[in-house]
Amino acid sequence: MRVRWHVDRPWLRRCGRETVDANDRLRVPPDHPRYTVRRVWLTKEEEEGYYQGFANEGIWPLCHIAHTRPVFRAEDWEYYQRVNEKFAQVVLEEIETAEKPFVLIQDYHFALLPRLINQNGPMPG
Fold this sequence. Notes:
4 strands, about 40% helix, disordered N terminus, single chain, alpha+beta, 3 helices
């Protein structure tokens, strides 16, 4: 799960607690840092419902014209919304001081993110 900006901009993704600083950030690569990784913490239930459930069992088959019937559960939809809201909050924190923020969102795991960011953040018109 990640949102990535070009050189020296935050890249949101999964990584371990032992690798991030007090602000949930990690500079990578260690030898010549070019990116900042920002950790977004999910509970096991959020990861299961959002990622394994709604995104992978529901949206994935639709996006890939798979011959698998999508599975949609109300509980997974709730987790999907909650996790997209979590990521939106983190993106908004990261772009808070940017004069002209540019955010690229490229995955079906974050289909709600553009609307959430635009509704709640200082995005240029």
